[in-house]
Specification:
CATH architecture of the largest domain: 4-Layer Sandwich
Helix content: 25-40%
Number of helices: 18
Oligomer: single chain
Radius of gyration: 25 Å
CATH superfamily of the largest domain: Aminohydrolase, N-terminal nucleophile (Ntn) domain
Number of strands: 25
Distance between the termini: 29 Å
Low-confidence stretches: none
CATH class of the largest domain: Alpha Beta
Bound molecules: 5-amino-5-deoxy-1-O-phosphono-D-mannitol
CATH topology of the largest domain: Glutamine Phosphoribosylpyrophosphate, subunit 1, domain 1
Structural class: alpha/beta
Largest sheet: 8 strands, antiparallel
Length: 596
């Protein structure tokens, strides 16, 4: 989510850090900062992009330092919340990418012990914790502190009195060492290093690095030494920014297990919502556009099942002009960018109508957050591909978490059910990963659709919206016409369109609609359309009816849109790639649509 870089060597650190940070701006850029060991720690940071930081930076000298470009998760984008953070005495500097799950607990304990906090971030707790444990050895203090931390992190830390080393550590966030000549680097991404070296060593989870001018030592947080090979990489800068993937979209599809994990960290259920809700709502209205609207349609099934409250889903562009009955309505607005004009206008209208409002968004401090009573951040990290992928999956995660929370508020979920749903939620990153592991097979199936004139995606119940999303993703990047349809509705008209050139993607998990769905597959096969079925592992029926089958792990049906969405994203991607379409920037489309 954030980009981090550290330098130790014989050159001035500040210009090197600034250049590396510019290479990391694609990871997020709402604020930036750096800290350099001079006689004291010289720390500069501000809201805005790296160029702004550079223009206002005084001349600072020092051959060891850290730099950070931020994509906010805790605390709005501001100078105070920008990294690096210093301890109370201004001797220790830290940069961090990730989420410290137990930061509130740590913060209140450290405040009781006399530490002074200056920001709203989760990271600041860690620098004060290291200060507490520091006893003349930075590496030891970092290790002691990390034993008390839960969450995901890649950190780099320096101490004013130890100008011969940087200490860095990783747990579930990327971290790589760059090896130069009499200079070394640490960074979240290879892109930050490529201007200086192509020799790298990867840091793994639960490892701590002591980086000096002449080398590095790795050990575990518990103190076991680790040996690590140095690798030479041959990536171009463009490859590096895409993490070695051919397109941002593919990178973002593959980032989904991590994005889901981050989205879940520390908040099942999200009890902070209780603070502003009185539980009086009798209807939920979900409002969104495009892919976020499809997430909303899936949300309807989740909320109605978990909280037994009736849910209406509406497009942002329609809501303003409708005249809904709006008493006791909770309005949930979904927008990954937080800037979609139609959704913003709907949020204002909902407030005007006196409704309580919640936003689900990925961008901290985006416009929607200023319009609503409560914001739930999806924490997917920056999404560069115009086609929404990881932001969509994390919107679903948000809806499951909110659904459980509403179930608690309305007392409609038994304890056992909450435990069951929570346990499924925790497994979602693994389920998404097992679909990604099948990417080669999905690609083969996708290639059967490259010359299609039209494609139908069909599903029932909670996977009807998944079918809509599959079709949207497909047409958006491959430029082949695609339509999502409730499987039972084909016979009321669209069957007339089926030919051998109109493949059908049939979403068929084993839920209460499964038998009917098998019937629908037979209907389309009989009209000569090739069928790609998506079903649960160990389903032996599908292969008898469909031309190709893609299997996903068997999850409780209410959670099946998660693994199935990964399949439909990959189908769209591989067809568009084969057709040499502009995948990351499809024609006529923009990442955020700021006109009504
Ligand atoms: O930023 P938002 O979630 O509000 O955007 C809404 C739609 O413009 C967006 O989901 C669009 O449909 C995507 N490009 C689809 O991949």
């Amino acid at each position: 989510m954030c980009g981090i870089v550290g330098y130790i060597g014989e050159n001035e650190a500040a210009p090197i850090l600034l250049r590396a940070l510019k290479r990391l701006e694609y990871r997020g850029y709402d604020s930036a900062g750096l800290v350099v060991v001079d006689n004291d720690l010289a720390c500069y940071k501000d809201k805005g992009m790296i160029d702004a930081l550079e223009q206002n930076l005084p001349k600072i000298s020092g051959k060891i330092g850290l730099g950070h470009t931020r994509w906010a998760t805790h605390g709005k984008p501001s100078k105070e919340n920008a990294h690096p953070f210093l301890d109370c005495k201004g001797k220790i500097g830290i940069i961090h990418n990730g989420i410290i799950e137990n930061h509130l607990e740590l913060r209140s304990q450290l405040i009781k012990e006399g530490h002074k906090f200056t920001s709203e971030t989760d990271t600041e707790a860690l620098v004060h914790l290291i200060e507490k444990h520091y006893n003349g050895n930075l590496e030891k203090a970092v290790k002691e502190s990390l034993k008390q931390v839960h969450g995901s992190y890649a950190i780099a830390v320096i101490h004013k009195d130890e100008n011969d080393n940087i200490v860095a550590a990783r747990c579930e966030s990327p971290l790589v060492i760059g090896i130069g000549s009499k200079e070394n680097f640490i960074a979240s991404d290879i892109a930050a290093l490529l201007d200086y070296t192509n020799k790298v060593a990867y840091v793994m989870d639960n490892e701590v690095v002591k980086l000096t001018r002449n080398g590095f030592e790795i050990s575990t947080v518990q103190g076991e030494p680790v040996s690590r090979n140095v690798e030479t990489i041959s990536w171009s800068m463009e490859d590096a920014e895409k993490g070695g993937y051919e397109h941002y979209m593919l990178k973002e599809i593959f980032e989904q297990p991590m994005a889901i994990h981050n989205s879940l960290l520390g908040r099942i259920p999200d009890l902070t919502i209780n603070e502003f809700m009185n539980g009086k709502f009798t209807t939920i209205r979900i409002i969104a556009c495009g892919t976020s609207y499809h997430a909303g349609l899936i949300g309807k099934y989740i909320f109605e099942n978990f909280s037994k409250v009736p849910v209406v889903v509406e497009m942002g562009s329609e809501y303003r002009y409708s005249e809904p009955i709006h008493e006791n309505t909770l309005v949930v607005l979904i927008t990954q960018s937080g800037e979609t004009a139609d959704t913003l206008a709907a949020a204002r209208e909902a407030k005007r109508r006196g409704n309580m409002t919640i936003a689900i968004t990925n961008v901290v401090g985006s416009s929607i957050t200023r319009e609503v009573d409560y914001t739930f951040y999806t924490r997917a990290g920056p999404e560069i591909g115009v086609a929404a992928t990881k932001t969509f999956i994390t919107q679903l995660v948000a809806l499951y978490i909110l659904g459980i929370t509403f179930g608690l508020i309305k007392r409609t979920l038994e304890y056992d059910k909450i435990r069951e749903h929570t346990s499924t939620l925790r497994k979602l990153p693994r389920y998404a990963q097992s679909v990604l592991d099948e990417a080669e097979h999905i690609k083969k199936c996708a290639l059967t659709m490259v010359d299609a004139t039209d494609v139908f995606y069909i599903g029932r119940n909670i996977n009807y919206p998944t079918a809509l999303e599959g079709a949207l993703k497909f047409k958006e990047i491959s430029y082949i016409h695609a339509e999502g349809y409730p499987a039972g509705e084909l016979k009321h008209g669209p069957l007339a369109l089926l030919t051998p050139q109109t493949p059908v993607v049939a979403i068929a998990p084993k839920d209460h609609t499964y038998d009917k769905l098998l019937g629908n597959i037979s209907e389309v096969s009989a009209r000569g359309s090739p069928v790609i079925a998506i079903g649960y592992q160990d389903d032996t029926e599908l292969s008898k009816l469909a031309d190709n089958v893609i299997y996903v792990p068997e999850v409780p049906p209410l959670f099946s849109p998660v693994p199935i969405s990964v399949v439909v994203q990959l189908l769209a991607y591989y067809v568009a790639r084969e057709r040499k379409c502009s995948i990351d920037k499809p024609r006529h489309l923009a990442k955020s649509v700021t006109v009504e």
